[in-house]
Amino acid sequence: MTMDYAYAITPFLAWLVAGVLKFAINSVKARRPAFGLIGYGGLPSNHSAIVSSMAALIAFREGIGHAAFGVAVTLAFIVMLDASSLRRQVGRQAATINRLTEATPEPARLRERMGHSLLEIIAGIAVGIIVAALVNGGI
Question: Which InterPro entries does the annotation name (predicted)?
Fold first, then answer.
């Protein structure tokens, strides 16, 4: 029995493609290399790209009736709900804390951009599906 490395490579490639796209988009918006904007938040969602790439690859190879597809979709839902709600709330709390500590000497700024909008999540899903389709097609 040989291992199909596509299942290990696909999420990594989805993360890489989404990260490069996010860096490029942020750099164009900022009109300079946007190294400081790498991380949580932004378009496309890395997390959504990673989990959707795996769900899509399983759908392409095993079919949507396979139990692994159900598990992958469940995990994807949890990750995307977290990205759109919990992490956005964390970002709002960080913004409030940053405002409260502005008057203190050398305030440690918390990262405020944490969650994703629906558009960012959808873009991440699209990246994940495209990467999975390319891997499934033989890349």
Answer: DUF212
